[in-house]
Design brief:
The chain has 97 residues and is mainly alpha-helical. The chain has helices at 18-30, 38-51, 64-77, 86-96. The chain contains four helices and no strands.
Length: 97
């Protein structure tokens, strides 16, 4: 008989809980953060992991799929004002030069 059937679960455990996601959303709003790409989303997730006390580098490696999934979650909870378009980023880069 199989006594340990944990392998039957659906993938890895979530990186952030629903409460932690809401805390990230509140931080974005409070600090008026503008997200431009997956790197911004990745940084927010890593910051949230550090707040949780996670410092193990192996647990802080995030796949591109994980980052995109959390980006979709963040996008679903935020208005478009928090997302910069590529053209806005290019304009900003041109004015900074």
């Amino acid at each position: 008989p199989i006594t340990n059937d944990d392998w039957r679960g659906m993938g890895c455990p979530s990186v952030l809980s629903a409460k932690e996601i809401d805390e990230v959303i509140e931080r974005i709003k409070r600090e008026d953060i503008r997200l431009t790409n997956d790197d911004d989303v990745r940084q927010l997730i890593l910051d949230a992991l550090r707040v949780k006390g996670i410092t193990d580098e192996s647990k802080m490696k995030l796949s591109a799929t994980t980052v995109k999934n959390y980006g979709a979650i963040f996008k679903s909870k935020l208005s478009a004002v928090y997302w910069k378009s590529d053209s806005e980023v290019q304009k900003q880069n041109v004015t900074m030069v």
